[in-house]
Specification:
Number of strands of chain B: 7
CATH superfamily of the largest domain in chain B: Alpha-helical ferredoxin
Order of helices and strands of chain B: EEHEEEEEHHHHHHH
Oligomer: heterotrimer
Number of strands of chain C: 0
CATH architecture of the largest domain in chain B: Orthogonal Bundle
Chains: A alpha/beta, B alpha+beta, C mainly alpha
Distance between the termini of chain C: 56 Å
Radius of gyration of chain C: 20 Å
Number of domains of chain B: 2
Shape of chain B: elongated
Strand content of chain C: under 5%
Structural class of chain B: alpha+beta
Shape of chain C: globular
CATH class of the largest domain in chain B: Mainly Alpha
Distance between the termini of chain B: 57 Å
Number of helices of chain B: 8
């Protein structure tokens, strides 16, 4: 169903003018402040406890605000930021290798395929420096050199070493740092923490976000929580594809419900696919596991030259192997960016040269590296990844080449926010992966952690003051009819899910939706495939509401009910994702339209028609959404066509 | 493969529970243990029965959500492997597998295999942090940390807070969990100012939550999916006695 | 303040157990060495026993040293047992519902016999004191003539069995207890772990074998 209207263009009014280096200073100076003794009188709701939410909650509480925070996991320490492996970028230039704030800014804008805002990205690069200081002070055990200084490595194909890391567990270490800061504030009574509590809806009164409806996942109680501002730090929507590297519980309910209440959703078609994931082993597969892309530094990617070759990899002679990345991209070889490596793997598999179950995999071979460096050196670099691979596949990568396949990994799109990280709904702030702001159409490696912490520790705490200081908030009580209304809508919806009592499980719908999206709106998207998806998604949604079955009641721990509620939202979100992909007829970053490619098969941007953010406004059930464009302006980095051949 | 699962079923925190037997047939050795529970649950749901409730999230061994005792061992038979990364190839066709929740008074069962581990959060809240409000940090390179110290801190910081140590300990002790955090923070230069108060209040909270004491059986370290060593407990004892001598009690 | 905190915390009580345990190990080692004098005959052995009563003279009065030592050991023993008893109760409360499958222990036999092994040792100790200190259950107890009492003991088969079981339990207890004490006192470190375990096992073996030579000596007729 292709039905949308184009509304007025929008602009980011919060971003100051002037030289880009001074904009963040300017904004901090022009922002109004809240007197320290008055901060106690303001309640702020923070949903999510990952890097963005955890750091924001801790910082706002330190400043003296009353924070009410939520996570659906049993502890704030389990948010999925914990799973990030590679590292975190910062423009410290500790290596004296020519790095600078400006270079990190430039790399991020270019890596995002010129679809992000210059002001936001520049600020991100500026703040990156402070993040490392903050994390070290908290005791995050970054890798060190023998002299006691911090170690750096290069990551994601950039030419400088600016990535700080803690073995393959950087996300975990940074998250625990934020969690500990959060814990200190919880013990001090500055944060009212609600674990195992999931946001179901946003309460908007007079155009301002004033609270949320949330369900206690243990007792099933659905309650309203009111505040002066609401911060969403609920992560990305990659799980819409069912198979992704996201955690099983990661979901889009918070941002989708906010969207339905009026918040614009920007660039939902920008989804990132990571090339080095462990392929699925069969129908039962419940999630995919990513392996750090550092593996591509020493591993060589190949497929058999002959289609349908079923010989064991070690029996295929050298001259019958196709090292296709090295062949197609001789200068970058196996180190081409994520989107290119992913698409190339898909092309090989589509042509029937894939390996492993279902022919959905390519080899990542370390035989040469082991011969060149010795097994010990390879083990020292990648030992933990090899162990993980062996644990999951039962194959020994020292002896048999690894099999890899691309998987959905990150969502660049998200709720639209201005320079202050405030959405078009006053009082609704969105931080981390949940917003759309900094990565454009493609995120560089080791930049997600940077953005989450920049938003939470430094940006939001400086900008939210301005909103609160301007006041004008009328008191709202739990008995307010507008509040009651949202609560009863949330309860009704749960009741509807419970009362269908059909014959299909929630997971079966989620799997079907995921397969459909992966097929029609995954690594390669065409007008035809997207139209097909838009035809089928509403039908699947209709089926869901007719034949899903959710056992049990709402007044208990009911994991099927939780899932059903999330999948119901995915079924709505998917349609907007496909629509955005259809409307954006160019290829850029993670969004590849087969109609828009260069003669040698590379993505071709269309700056004339698509150098804008697509911010979608909810049009109401049964009515198409409204597209608002935010034109992008490039004064410091001039868009060029990427080339890696 | 065909398996017989005997799973602890308990409808709620105050209800009684029992082991219930289920047959699972035609499962693949490449499936993870949680995927077997997924298959079982889909079948139960279609049959109109209540699915087995269990905690899980990342399914890649790092979030610490999954928590089940499999045949008397937390996270099952494989060393340094969480339940979510345990695959059926570690079992044999026809095996009978007992699946139970963590058992400890401070970890009450909420439903089936889901337990309440918030006691761990309270231990961290009581001192498992370094006080450094945002914005107050000195330049990162002004603090030098010798590599061996950084490595020791990291080794202990890898704890995922799953609770396998408590589940494995014959005394239901949380010493390894507490020890890992104390070793992480007390070994670093940044952690020195709060060194004594941290260990004293964390141990006091650990005791107040009702965990048992340590009898140095080493079951915790053997069960730890992240390989936190038993030497961390010796370090915790050392730090605690040092703090008492320093008169910060 | 610190003492109170020590006694109230689990780590503190374990520290009390470690210190008192090591005191008792030191005593047992000396006790074992003294016992070996039995192989030099009745005169030597009885003279050694008599000398024990004169330690510290003339500063201390006759038998005062022995009584001081007895009191110190008795206090240590009581603290050790009370701590163990309180900690065990706490440990049991910490797991109100047992595993249906039962835990699969990874640790050694010595480690898992600390608790009921300790109880057996306590019972053995009472019998041992009644036997060779008070003499109430000894077949041939004459004050001042311990050699004769020992020889009389080990000519009874079941006394040999009781004694051997008691001593072996003590050895197992020390084997884990010595290392455990090092762990509890925070003395253990990864680089010392092997050495401390080896020392504990050596001490346990020496004490066990040293004590066992006496009944073996009597049974084989070496001591008569």
């Amino acid at each position: 169903m292709i039905d949308y209207t184009v509304g007025e263009d929008i602009v980011d009014r919060a971003a100051p003018d002037g030289p880009i280096e001074a904009r963040w200073d300017t904004r901090r100076f022009t922002a109004k402040l809240v007197n320290p003794s008055n901060r106690r009188k303001h309640r702020i709701i923070v949903v999510g406890t990952g890097l963005a939410g955890g750091s924001a909650g801790a910082t706002l509480a330190e400043q003296g605000y009353q924070v009410v925070q939520f996570c659906f996991q049993d502890s704030p320490r389990r948010a999925h930021s914990v799973a990030a492996q590679g590292g975190i970028n910062a423009a410290k230039d500790y290596r004296n290798d020519g790095d600078s704030i400006h270079r990190l800014f430039y790399d991020t804008v270019k890596g995002g395929d010129f679809r992000s805002r210059e002001s936001n990205v520049y600020r991100l690069a500026q703040v990156s420096v402070e993040i490392i200081d903050q994390c070290v002070a908290q005791g995050v055990p970054f890798a060190r050199e023998y002299g006691g200084l911090l170690d750096n490595r290069s990551f994601g194909g950039v030419q400088v070493s600016r990535t700080f890391y803690a073995r393959g567990q950087t996300g975990q270490q940074l998250l625990i740092g934020a969690y500990q800061a959060l814990s200190r504030q919880i013990a001090a009574g500055n944060i009212e923490m609600h674990p195992r509590t999931e946001m179901l809806d946003l309460i908007v009164i007079d155009g301002r976000a004033r609270g949320i409806v949330a369900r206690d996942l243990i007792t099933g109680e659905v309650r309203t929580y009111l505040a002066d501002a609401v911060v969403l730090a609920t992560g990305g929507y990659g799980n819409i594809f069912y198979l992704s590297t996201n955690a099983k519980g990661s979901n889009a309910t918070a941002i989708w419900r906010a969207h339905r209440r009026g918040a614009y959703l920007a660039n939902p078609c920008y989804t990132q696919i990571h090339p080095t994931c462990i392929p699925r082993s069969g129908e039962h597969q419940s999630k995919l596991t990513l392996m750090s892309e550092s593996l591509r530094n020493d591993g060589r990617i190949w497929v058999p030259k002959r289609k349908g070759d079923t010989r064991a990899p070690n029996e295929i002679p050298e001259d019958e192997r196709d090292y296709y990345l090295e062949r197609i991209y001789p200068s970058f070889g196996n180190l081409v960016p994520r989107d290119i490596a992913s698409r190339a793997a898909k092309n090989q598999c589509d042509e029937g040269r894939g390996v492993g179950p279902g022919g959905l995999g390519v080899y990542l071979d370390f035989a040469d590296a082991i011969a060149r460096l010795g097994r010990d050196a390879v083990e020292a670099r990648y030992g933990n990844l090899f162990d993980m691979y062996q644990r999951i596949t039962g194959e020994n990568p020292y002896e048999v080449p690894m099999r890899i396949y691309p998987a959905i990994h990150y969502a660049m799109g998200g709720l639209w926010v201005d320079y202050d990280l405030q959405s078009n709904l006053a009082g609704l702030f969105v931080i981390g992966e949940a917003n759309f702001s900094d990565h454009g159409a493609n995120r560089l490696g080791a930049s997600a952690l940077m953005q989450g912490l920049a938003d939470g520790y430094f940006v939001l705490p400086a900008t939210i003051n301005d909103y609160l200081a301007r006041g004008g908030l009328d008191p709202v009580g739990p008995e307010d009819p507008a509040v009651r209304q949202v609560q009863s809508e949330a309860l009704d919806r749960l009741q509807r899910l419970l009362s269908v009592r059909g014959e299909r499980t929630v997971d079966s719908f989620h799997r079907e939706l995921g397969a459909l999206l992966w097929d029609k709106c995954g690594m390669a998207r065409s007008d035809e495939s997207l139209r097909d998806a838009l035809e089928r998604i509403p039908k699947l949604r209709e089926q869901f509401w007719q034949s899903v079955t959710v056992p049990g009641t709402g007044a208990e721990l009911n994991q099927e009910l939780e899932k059903a509620n999330r999948v119901a939202d995915f079924l709505e979100f998917a349609e907007l994702l496909a629509l955005d992909a259809l409307v954006r007829t160019e290829s850029c970053g993670g969004h590849f339209r087969v109609e828009s490619q260069t003669p040698d098969g590379e993505a071709r941007r269309d700056d004339e028609n698509f150098s804008h953010v697509a911010a979608w406004e909810f049009g109401g059930d049964g009515r198409g959404p409204v597209l608002h464009k935010e034109p992008l302006q490039f004064d410091y980095v001039h868009p060029t066509q990427r080339s890696y051949a | 493969m065909n398996l017989t699962l005997r799973i602890w079923r308990q409808p709620g925190p105050d209800a009684g529970g029992s082991m219930v037997t289920y047959q699972v047939s035609d499962v693949s050795p490449d499936m993870s243990f949680l995927e077997v529970l997924d298959v079982l649950n889909e079948r139960l749901i279609r049959a109109g029965e209540q699915p087995v409730a269990f905690d899980h999230d990342c399914r890649e061994g790092i979030c610490g959500s999954c928590a089940m005792v499999i045949n008397g061992r937390p996270h099952g038979p494989e060393q340094t492997t969480t339940t979510c990364q345990l695959h059926l190839r570690s079992f044999r066709d026809g095996d009978v597998i007992d699946v139970e929740p963590w058992r400890a008074r401070p970890f009450p069962v909420i439903k089936d295999l889901v337990v309440d581990r918030s006691a761990f959060d309270r231990i961290i809240s009581s001192g498992g942090y370094i006080t450094s409000p945002t914005g107050s940090a000195p330049e990162a390179h002004s603090i030098l940390v010798p590599k061996p110290v950084a490595d020791l801190a990291f080794e202990n910081a890898t704890c995922i807070g799953c609770g396998a140590c408590v589940a494995a300990c014959p005394n239901g002790s949380a010493m390894l969990f507490t020890a890992a955090k104390v070793a992480h923070l007390n070994s670093l230069p940044q952690g020195q100012p709060e060194r004594e108060s941290r260990v004293l209040s964390m141990v006091a909270t650990m005791d107040a939550e009702g965990f048992g004491g340590c009898t140095n059986t080493g079951e915790c370290a053997a069960a730890c999916p992240k390989g936190i060593p038993l030497s961390s407990i010796a370090n915790l004892n050392r730090e605690y006695l040092h703090a008492l001598r320093a008169g910060r009690a | 303040m610190a003492v109170r905190a020590l006694w109230d915390s689990t780590i503190g009580k374990k520290t009390v157990m470690a210190v008192t345990g090591l005191m008792m190990v030191a005593f047992l080692f000396l006790h074992m060495l003294g016992n070996l004098k039995i192989f030099f005959g009745a005169t030597d052995f009885n003279a050694y026993a008599a000398w024990l009563r004169t330690i510290g003279e003339p500063f201390l009065h006759f038998t005062w040293y022995l009584w001081i030592q007895r009191v110190v050991l008795a206090v240590a023993l009581v603290l050790h047992i009370v701590s163990a008893w309180q900690l065990s109760r706490r440990d049991r409360r910490a797991r109100p519902v047992k595993y249906a499958h039962g835990l699969r222990p990874q640790a050694s036999f010595a480690t898992h016999t600390m608790r009921w092994g300790g109880v057996i040792i306590a019972v053995f100790l009472i019998w041992h004191l009644l036997d060779l200190t008070v003499g109430a259950v000894n077949p041939n107890f004459v004050p001042g003539k311990p050699y004769q009492a020992v020889v009389a003991d080990f000519q009874v088969w079941w006394i040999n069995i009781v004694y051997i079981i008691g001593v072996v339990m003590v050895g197992l207890h020390i084997n884990h207890g010595f290392w455990s004490a090092a762990q509890t006192l925070g003395v253990n470190r990864p680089v010392r772990d092997v050495a401390i375990r080896a020392t504990g096992t050596t001490v346990a073996l020496l004490i066990t074998l040293g004590f066992l030579t006496v009944p073996i000596g009597v049974m084989t007729g070496l001591v008569h």
